[in-house]
User: What shape does this take?
Amino acid sequence: MSALPVSLFGQHTGELALAGPLRSPEDWTFVYAPSYLASPAPIPLSVSLPLRPEPYAGAVVRNWFCNLLPEGGVRLAIEARLRLPPRDDFALLTAIGGECAGAVSVGAPTTVGGVSVDLETLLGETTGNGDGDWALHGAPRRLSLAGAQDKLAVIVDGHGRLRLPAVGEPSTHLLKPDSRSFRGLRELEALGLALATAVGLDAARARAIDIAGRHALLIERYDRRLDDGVVQRLHQEDFCQALGYPGELKYEGQGGPGLATISQLLRRLALGPAALQGLLDAVVFNALIGNADAHAKNLSLLIDRTGRRRLAPLYDLVPTVALPETLVDREPALRIGEATRIETITADDWRRFARAAGYGPGFVLRRVDSLADAVLAALPGVVAELTASGGDAQRLQRGGNAVQAQTLALQRAAAA
Assistant: This one.
């Protein structure tokens, strides 16, 4: 048996264990520590793992913890660098689970220590051309960041300088290099995030920068909070974790959760009108900008130290309609009615979505229209602002044109 301690908000919470030579999902177990259950107001690790003294076993455990891990080429690069067995989730968690997204830590407790690292010099030494170049700089420091995009957790100090966190020190920002496979992804993600903020939605804050000869996007972590000058972690879990799905099923078409299931969970948790409005706005906004890749891991719950849950700010807002269709599928990752392409969502599709997810059809259609008006009004200014702050003018204009065309098409279709 292999076992790893699990901490939440720096408090020992329980033990994750794996028994059996096959290392199959059925062999995974998690049990809350008796001392944690007896502590004042303990917080569940997940909606799918409520507090109880009996151990959890099987896929529900494996799915939640494996959703903390990186995916795709980033994962392969880290496994190769650390000489880990391929596809061994438990070994990867052991190696890089010391600080994950949110406030959870898997493995031996870490203490703050070490020295600051000159980030630009470090990144400038990168010689590889594949996915995961920058993530590799974080992996040996026990930083696990989920997702398929290359990224690095960093700290922006009071003078605006970037550095790697010392061991155990909470990072404040994520640094994403522009994709080598999807050139211009930086501009598209910056456009989606800035546009969401401009129309009044709660979204992660980001800005384009150049560092070590690479274009990059610097994103403020929404799972961090500054209290009296001290960076505090907030807990989070995406909807695959909250609903007990493996990360491999983040797309509804592959068997993952759909919008009706996500809406039902928000209602069961009694998160109130703000969360339901936030989910609706996320669905409508992603459709209007043409983000067909908005899957269940791109929606999350944010949990503070009192255990209060709310819908997390929007993130990973990429207008994928601006990318070649040979690279990105146009089928919505989370289905809206019966639409098979993000560009062809009709009024009937919105009505079907509304009925399935528990919204009034008329209310949904009015929100599509009003948010479309807001997007079209804000778009020119957002493109101009991002260009003035150092973004690539041609790519931003191309992305803006794609968003405008998509928004107009969906607004007209919703009114028909």
Notes: The CA atoms of residues 208 and 390 lie 7 Å apart. The mean pLDDT is 89. The two ends are 61 Å apart (CA to CA). Residues 361-388 form the longest helix (28 residues).
